[in-house]
Each structure stands twice: as C-alpha cells, then as structure tokens.
Amino acid sequence: xxxxxxxxxxxxxxxxxxxxxxxxxxxxxxxxxxxxxxxxxxxxxxxxxxxxxxxxxxxxxxxxxxxxxxxxxxxxxxxxxxxxxxxxxxxxxxxxxxxxxxxxxxxxxxxxxxxxxxxxxxxxxxxxxxxxxxxxxxxxxxxxxxxxxxxxxxxxxxxxxxxxxxxxxxxxxxxxxxxxxxxxxxxxxxxxxxxxxxxxxxxxxxxxxxxxxxxxxxxxxxxxxxxxxxxxxxxxxxxxxxxxxxxxxxxxxxxxxxxxxxxxxxxxxxxxxxxxxxxxxxxxxxxxxxxxxxxxxxxxxxxxxxxxxxxxxxxxxxxxxxxxxxxxxxxxxxxxxxxxxxxxxxxxxxxxxxxxxxxxxxxxxxxxxxxxxxxxxxxxxxxxxxxxxxxxxxxxxxxxxxxxxxxxxxxxxxxxxxxxxxxxxxxxxxxxxxxxxxxxxxxxxxxxxxxxxxxxxxxxxxxxxxxxxxxxxxxxxxxxxxxxxxxxxxxxxxxxxxxxxxxxxxxxxxxxxxxxxxxxxxxxxxxxxxxxxxxxxxxxxxxxxxxxxxxxxxxxxxxxxxxxxxxxxxxxxxxxxxxxxxxxxxxxxxxxxxxxxxxxxxxx
Length: 604
Ligand code: AGP
Hints:
The protein is an alpha/beta fold. The chain folds into three domains: 3-244, Glutamine Phosphoribosylpyrophosphate, subunit 1, domain 1 (4-Layer Sandwich), CATH 3.60.20; 254-433, 3-Layer(aba) Sandwich (Rossmann fold); 444-587, Rossmann fold, CATH 3.40.50. It is 36% helix and 23% strand. It contains 19 helices and 27 strands. Strands 3-2-4-1-10-9-11-15 form an eight-stranded antiparallel beta sheet. The chain has a seven-stranded antiparallel beta sheet with strand order 5-6-7-8-12-13-14. Strands 19-18-20-21-22 form a five-stranded parallel beta sheet, with helices on both faces. The longest helix is centred in the C-terminal third of the chain and has 22 residues, at 422-443. The structure holds 2-deoxy-2-amino glucitol-6-phosphate. 2-deoxy-2-amino glucitol-6-phosphate binds next to helix 9.
C-alpha cells in the first residue's frame, strides 16, 4: 500500500505535502517524492528510503509552487530506489499511484516508441496521458480516455506541465479522498493524510475521477457523467495520529486498549440490561453457517471466534485466510453469513473474498476499523470496532477490538438462536464488562515482561504454544515477534508439537506457553514438560491458579489477571504484544515501520 497526497491552492505547498507524507508513512516507506507546478512548470524531487531522506533532498534542492502531488511507496513492481520512486514523469505529465496496473506490459508494448526509465507499472500512466496530449486531446479528455485503458487497481493523482493549477485524480480499487478547503483542494489516500488540512472529505467511489482547482472540484463517474458525492466531516483532526509521550505508535496503541475495548463494547453490549445489543440487520436467526475471512492478525481473530460461535451459539464456522478463500471454490449457501475481518477495510484479498461471496448471493458483513473503507461500503452490513486510527504496522488494539466485537456478536447470535441461558448470558456479559479493567491490570506487567524480553531477544528462533482458543493467540504472538523483531517464530497447537516440530527443540530453545488455568491447562503443562525435558527455555503466560499449580518448574512466569475462559484469549494477547514490542526495542528494529511491511496490503 502506498500513500498519496496532493494540494492545489493559492499558497506554496511543499512543506504541507511532506508533512502529509509523514502521516502516510505507515502505508509504505521505501521511497518517496514530490512534484510541483511552479508557474506551470513541473519540478520534481525524489529519494530512496524514509521521508527524512526526501526532506534532506528538498533541503538541498528546494522546489515549491501552489500545486503539487507527493507519494510514499511500498514497492510492488521494481526495487525500492529513486528511479522507481513516484512521482513518475513522461513529457508533460507527472503521476503518483497506489495499486497495481495489471496490463502495464501491454501498454508498454503499445507505447514502445516511448522511453521508459523505471521498472514500475505506474510509469505507463504518465506515458498514456502524455501520448493523448501529443495527439491533440485537451487535458481532461486525455486523462479520462487514458483511464479507460488501465486494468487493475489504482488511486492516482496527476499534474500536467504548462497547465494552470489543477490536479487530475481517479480511483478504482484503491481508496482516495478529496479534501475541501478555503480556496484550496486536497487529495489524499485517507483521512489521516489530510487531517492537518481539512475535516471535509469526499470519498471517491469505484470508477470515479475528478479535476481539482483551488476554487472547485468536479467529479465524474466511470461513464464520464458529472456526479456529486457526499461530504463527510471527519472528527479527530490532527491529534488523530500523534505519538504523544510514547516512544512508538505501537506502544501507544497497546496502552490504549482498555479504552478502545471499552469503546468497542459500547457498540455491541447494553451494559445496563447486561445483554448483547447488535445492529438489527445482524440477525442470526436463519443463519446456519458463518464464514470468517481475513489476513494475518485479523485471521487469528477469526480463529478465536470460531471457538466462540461454535461453543456458545452452536453455529458452524469456516475460517479462511483471504488469499486462499476464493481460489478453493468454497461451497456457499444462501443461509451463510460472510464476515470480513479487516482493520483497514482495504486489504485486497479480503475485499476480493467479500466480493466473491456477494456475487454468489451470500449475505456479507465487514468488521472494520475504518468505516469509510471500501469493505465497509460494499458489505451488506458494516460493523465498526471503533479502535481509532492504528498507525503502528503491527496490529495491536485493532486485534483486541476485533476479538471484543466478535465475542459480543457471538452472544447476540446465541440469543437469537435461543441457546443462551439467562445465567450463562449474565456470566459471559459480566466477563466482557470486566475485561477492560483486566487489560489495564495486564499492562501493569509491562516491566516484568520487558525484563524477560532482554534474553528472549537474543533468540534466533522461538515457539509459541497454546490449546483451544489460545492456539490463535500463539499464532498471533509468533507473528508479532516475527514482524517487528525479525526473529523467526512459529505458533503451534501444543498437542501438535510431538508430531514433528519437537525435533527442533534443543538446549535453550525459547518456548512461550499460553496456559490460563482452564480445562486444558494440565494437558498444556504436559506438553510444556515434553519440551522442557529436551532443553527448552520456557516463558509461561498463565494466571494465579496456573502459577500455583506449576510451582517452581518454570522460572519465567507471567501471571496475568484471572479471566473467564471466554475472555482469556484477549488477556493473554497483552502479554505477547508486550513481549514482541520489548524484544524489538532491545534489537533496535524500526518498531512502527518494520522492513518490507506496510500497514495494509492493498495488492494481491
Ligand atoms: C498485523 O500485525 C499485520 N500488520 C498484518 O497481519 C495485518 O493484520 C493484515 O495485513 C490484515 O490487515 P487488515 O486487518 O487491515 O485487513
């Protein structure tokens, strides 16, 4: 996923473009660039690496003007270097792009008389428009006709040398918003990019394109018909994405979880009636199967929810990783409910799965953190998690809010199926209401976990083990460690290790065991003993009762607040988040923007 920002107005724009790029850097950060119309002449500067490299380049080679576009990249085609950095230029045309142009090789072939200088798919857009201008088409026609030749996904901004202050933009498959200012118009990949500039956003719809001038904007649909789109007032403003006193966004977002979980609960639980309170359109009465589809961390939330929906509501659940779902030709029925789980609401494979189900007549819901996202707009039911902007690439508060929402939705499903006794409903609702306090107590363990992370961060490999609904938390703990500390780790069902992977256990192999004192505790401890007897170095994440039972068998024990079995996976998550975070900090990696990653993967 890349970040785009553009401004056309009556005052200089370079500094504000760079500031916007910094707010977009979580979307991709392997190179960046700015292009300006300075008295109708395009000037461009680009740099490999983080935004600070671009700032240094602009310090040495300043450019400015009243119209400009800028871009921060997560490479899809072409290595991350200056040549492949956006904006891309051809003749009079300069463009920034987020997405993938699938037919870029055909277009290169068609324009073989052009000289292509980069390895990117994006560059073909500039050449297409430049070719149309050279054929005598006026800019607006050159732009709209070139769009029709593109196949794939794009959100793009484009300026033309020799033209007045104007930005051409378009959206197909990747999100793009117009910002409305005072004698200024803006373009941005998301609300965060424009948070310092305006609160008045217009989200372009699929196939829309637009022309921005300092005084106006005109929007056209895929058939080039002039259309109007609603203005959304975005709350939160600049504070939306500030680190405050935290060293990293990830730590801030870990510490926000008592509050964000509370906010999520308010959407799905009636705290006074002690009852689930689902949106009326989310009715499980006639649903006989739930399909949960997501990627990465979000998919682990789905895996936990499978235990809940089946054990509490008695509804069969299929959990699929999105990149496989549509290709396995799943058997679908009209009595199924598809739920996409996605923090960004833009992940390409998850969106494709949602569209696949919708096209096959299945009712769709999207559990998202961004209610203006494509999934929220395209699903039959949009379900907010209300976790607030998550800037750290490693997902933390969104994950626990996804789990919280799914837990509450499970109770609503059980009630609609008539399978939840009043006593059990009361117990489970109470466990949810108590949970934010327990998360806050779990955060008190930060210092103890940081101390353990010091040795843990020296590992080259690590295992995470769990049973039952702790298995997906073992997967999540391993992923957190991998993606921010670059230590290889695997999550495993504890009972599975002896079927092969135990061969990897040797003296000192770190093994994190997730074992609250529940019905599976004894079995999990047996598995712990199997690896201890082969030299493993254990970190046990348990609760008071678990610690009493284990005695002095294990040196490193993290004693979490005692939680109901139902909410235990959310509580143990706090420990694995902090363990990964402090390990990465000890190793000095870029915690908020780990190498090779981007916050949301909007390409397949
Ligand atoms: C989580 O830490 C990762 N950054 C990644 O697995 C992420 O959860 C996944 O890409 C899904 O993103 P989404 O929730 O925005 O769809």
